[in-house]
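Case study.
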Amino acid sequence: MERFAALVDGLVYTRSRNGKLALLADYLRTTPDPDRGWALAALTDGLDFPAVKAGTVRALLDERVDEVLWRLSRDYVGDTAETASLLWPEPAAPQAPAPSVTEAVEVLAGATRATAGQRLADLLDRLDANGRYALLKLATGAMRIGLSARLAKVAFAQAFGVDVEQVEELWHGQVPPYTALFAWAADGAPPPDAQSLPLFRPFMLAQPLEETVVDLAEFAAEWKWDGIRVQLVHVNGQSRLYSRGGDDISASFPEMTGALHVPAVLDGELLVRGSHQGGKAGGAASFNALQQRLGRKSVSKAMLADYPAFVRLYDVLLLEGEDLRPLGWEARRARLEALVPRLDPARFDISPVIAAETLDDLAEIRARARDDAIEGVMLKRRDAPYVSGRRAGLWYKWKRDPLLIDCVLMYAQRGSGKRSSFYSDFTFGCWDGDPDAGAELLPVGKAYFGFTDEELKWLDRHVRQHTVNRFGPVREVDRSLVLEVAFDSVHASKRHKSGLAMRFPRIHRIRADKPAHEADRLETLRAMVAD
Amino acid sequence: MWPPFCWGHFGAPQGASGTGSGPGPLWWGMALDLSWIRPEPKGLYLPPADAWIDPAHAVAQALVTHGHSDHARGGHGQTIATGATLAIMGLRYGVMPEGARVVDYGQSVDLAGGIRATFVPAGHVLGSAQILLERDGQRVVVTGDYKRRPDPTCAPFQPVRCDVFITEATFGLPVFRHPPIAEEIARLLATLAAHPERCVLVGAYALGKAQRLIAELRRAGHHAPIFLHGAMERMCGLYREWGIDLGELRPAAGVAKGEIAGHIVVCPPSALNDRWSRRLPDPITAMASGWMRVRQRARQRNVELPLVISDHADWDELTATIAEVDPAETWITHGREEALLRWCALHQRPARALAMVGYEDEDD
Ligand SMILES: [Zn+2]
Ligand SMILES: [Zn+2]
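After joint prediction, the assembly is written out as follows.
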C-alpha cells in the first residue's frame, strides 16, 4: 500500500500528462500481480465495495474525533478522505505491517455493512497518513485525481511496449486484477480471448472538417444524428449496449439489448422515437427526450412506452463471426444494408447516405435540413477500414454550429432552374466604420440558400419593391434590410474589396426588425478570421 | 553561542501532567489582576510601561519576539529584542533600529510601572524569544512564534511556568502534524538522486526556514554546493556570522544550467513559479512548509514535491505545550484559534482568542 500511496500522491502533484504517464508506467512495470491490477482498477474507478459508504468513514471518525474539531478540519482541508487520513489517531499498540493493495481489497470485498467499519479501521491502524489517504480513496471509490481511463491504458501500453488500441480492445473483456492482460503484455502470453465475449470495440472517430476540402467521389456523406453514439454487441446469446466511452449502458435500454439476435457488433446512434421535430412521424425525437432515458439504472414500463429507443445504424464491425473492420466503408455499408432487413424495424433503421456531388451541394443540403435531430454531416472515406480512434484523412464531421453576423442586403440576382423567376442569389455587406458618420457598406459575401420557400417569396418581393438600380439580371437594392448570415469560417482574401471571404455563407434569418445601421461592421467580421 | 540556561532564571513548570486537571492548585480560586496587559488589535499593550509587544505599527517602545516581518516592524522609538533579532531587523531595514536595546536569553529588562520582561528561547528562528512578563507576582508568557522540534540554527524552546500563556496558533488544527524533519530531508535527497539531469528548486522562507533546511541537509550528509536565489544570500550570511555552519553556498545567478543539474536550489516561495526559475535545468518544484500537509495547498502552488517542514508548533506541540506549561488562562494571538479554543474547552482550560490584526500566515 505504501507504493500505491506514493503513486497516488505522485499523480496528485504531477501536472504534466507525460509525467503522470511515466509514474504510472513505472509502477505497473515494477509492481507484482495482483497488486498492480487492483491499483489500476482503483485508479480508473473500476473498484466498488458496496459495504463501504461515505458514511462508514464519518462514523469511524465520529467515534475518535470531537465533532467540532472534525468540522473545522474538514472545512479547512476540503476533502473528507484527506481530513480523515490526517486526523486518524496513531494506534498505541504496535500493529502488523502495512497491508498490500491486494490484502486491502480482499478485506474490504469480504466486508458486510456490519463489519465494514471495523475492517476499515484495522487497515487504517496499519498505515501512515499518506497510506490512509490512498486506502480511503480506494475504499470509497472516489479517486478523482485527474487520471482518465484512457490515460491509464496509454500508461499500460507504454509500460510494456504494446499497442494502445489493442489494449483498449482487450481491456473490456477483463475484470480486475487483469491478470490475463498483464500476462499478455508483460510476459508475452497469448492475448485474452475477445471474439466469444460481448466486448466493447473502440470506436472509429472523426476529425472536424474545418478548412479541409474533400472530393465526394472519394467520400460518402451521411447525417450525424443528435443522439448518443452506441455500440450494440450480440454474441453467444449475450447482448450489451456500450456508450461512446465504452461504458455498459445495457441496463438503461433493455429493449435494445433484447432486440438483436444476430451475432454482430453494430455502430449507430441511439435515439428516442418521436414525431414533433419536423421529421416524418416515427422519426427521432429531440435530444431532450433521450435525456429522460439516460443514466437510469432501471426503467419503468411507462418510460419504455413514452420514450421508446431505437438505433440508427452507421456501420457493422463484426457479423456472424467475421471481422469486417479491415474492409473498406463501401463494402461494410453493403453488408449493413443487407443486414438491416433481418432486424426488427421498430428498433433499427439505417442512417441514409446523402446524395450530393460537390461540397457546395452538400453545404446547401446541410443548411436546408430542418430536422433538429441532425447535428451535422459525416464524411467517410469510401475505401477506409474501420480503425479505432481519430485517424487523419478517414472520417470528418461537419457540424452545424455556424458563426453568425448581421449584414445588409446590397444586390440580388435571379436564380436558375425552378428558381429562375425569383431573386434568390443575395449579396450582402458590412459597414466599414460608423454608419452614422458616413461609413459605407462593402460586400462580404453571397448566399443562395438557407431560407425556406416562404422566406424566398418574401425576399423576392422585398427586392422588387426596394430596387434602386438594374444591371441586367442583377438588382441593386436600398440599404434597408438586415440579414443574419451564418457561415463556417472567414478568411483574409485579396479578391474582395472588404479583404475578407466567408466559407459556406447562408441566410440564417431575415432581420426585418433591425435597422440597417445596427448591422455589424467589418471589424467584427475581421475579428472572426480563423487564420 | 548563546548563554547556557538553567531553570533558576525563570522557573520550571511544576507537575504539569497534561491530563486536563485545569489551573494549578497555586492559582485555584485566586482572581488574576491583568489590567497591566491589554490585547489591542495592533498588538499586546502594557499600559503602565507604555510598551508594546510585536506591534503592527510604529510605537514609542516595542518588545520584539523575532525578526519575521509581521512581528518586527520598523520605525519604533525604542526596540527591545535579542541581539540576533536586532541584527536581522538591521539587515532587513538597512539600519539598526532606533534605540536598539539588546536583551540576551535569560536576561531581564525592567520596564516602567514595575513590569519586568525576560527573554526566553522560543525555538522558532535565530534569535526568536518568548517574553516572560512579571508584575506583582503575576506571570504572563508571550510565545511569539515557536516550535518544539530541535533546530540546528536556533536555541530550543524553554517551557516557562506562568499564569497566562499567550500562544500562537498558526497550525492550530488537528490535521497539522509535522512529520520528523529527517523523513522530509530523506525524500528531498531521494528525489534529487533519482533525477541527476534536473535540479530540485525548494521554496523556503528566507529567514529561518531556508537556513534550517540547509543545516539539516548538511546534517544528513549532503555536502554538495547549494545554490541560492539572490534574496537568500544576505540572510544566510548573517546566520554564518552568528556561528551557524551552512556549508558551501553559491549564488544561482549567472551559473550555467549544466552546473546546477543534480543540485539543490533554494529560493523564496514567491520565486517558485516566476520567470526566475526558467534559467534552471528542468527544476522539480518543492516547497518546505507546514501548509504542505494539505494536498490542495500544495497543488495551489504547483508544488510537485511538498516537504512538510515548519518552524511553528504543530497541533500536538501546541496542545502538549499548553498542558505542560499549565497556565490558569490561555490566550491565543493568531492562527486557527477556533480549534485550539475548542481543545481548551474540552480540557477544561480557560481560554480566549485575541482579535489581533497584522499577523500573517507565514509561508511556514
Ligand atoms: Zn515567525
Ligand atoms: Zn507569526
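Observations recorded in class. Residues B 66, 68, 71, 124, 145, 362 surround zinc ion (ligand 1) (CB under 6 Å). Chain B touches chain A through 22 residues (CB under 8 Å). We will return to this complex in the next lecture.
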